[in-house]
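Entry type: protein chain
Record version: 2
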Amino acid sequence: MPRIGDLFVSDDQGSARNTTTQFSDSKSLWRNHVRLRHNEEFAVIKFLQDCDDGDKTLFHSVPSVSASGKTFTSYEFCSDASANNVEGRVFEEPCVHCANPDLNDENGRPQLRNRFRYYVMHYGTYHLESNPDIKEQREWTQDWKSVEVGRQVYFRETKLQPQVLELSPGTWTDLSDDFKRRGTILDKVYEYRRSFREGQVRYKLVASDIKVPNFDEQLAVITADFPPMIDISAQKITEIDFPVLESAAKKKEQEVEDDAFEKMANFEEEF
């Protein structure tokens, strides 16, 4: 069952992020989003919410600088947008970003951008050999398994747990088109891919033929306790503890091994 953290208190700048804590805490929201850090790698996922059931939240695009000096866009929740408060105001305090003239358009109105979030089952991420973590033989890569997908060799990082997938409007439009054609996005496995084209990082969703274990029964139980996605988008919660699932085949294999070990132990005790 996911464990929901305490309410998050924003800092003076209105940002709800603590980068160091988010990166190191395995239960942090940052760590529990599907993330692709390198180009030409992909995650194998299955949606746990249909296209119209995901979260469509409005954010301010805030220019930011990382600790290493790199510039990036930080998407900050708009607490004043009516679309974000349909079921009641999320935060009582007014949005500090709406009051920032540098973030407004030429008419003085806030420039807001949608980000789309869904709960997904994340089976694993496929890394290339050129991944810096593999080259540097980082400790966490030791369990990554070398596999072939077509003619390409990848190193598979097994996840087998629910996570949150955040999509840009462009990537979501492709997903929406697939939904309109077929009527659902719940019935197939997708690959969420990262690439670098025309000078910028791009993400896309494509159908996958990679076989994955069936966790339908387990997911039906645990997803009932997931928090509303708006609480994650607004970062009202600090952490969520998604369980790592175990396939029936793997569980049976472990039971056989445990049984064999127990018999061996009992046999030795007789002597």
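Comment: Residues 19-269 form one domain.
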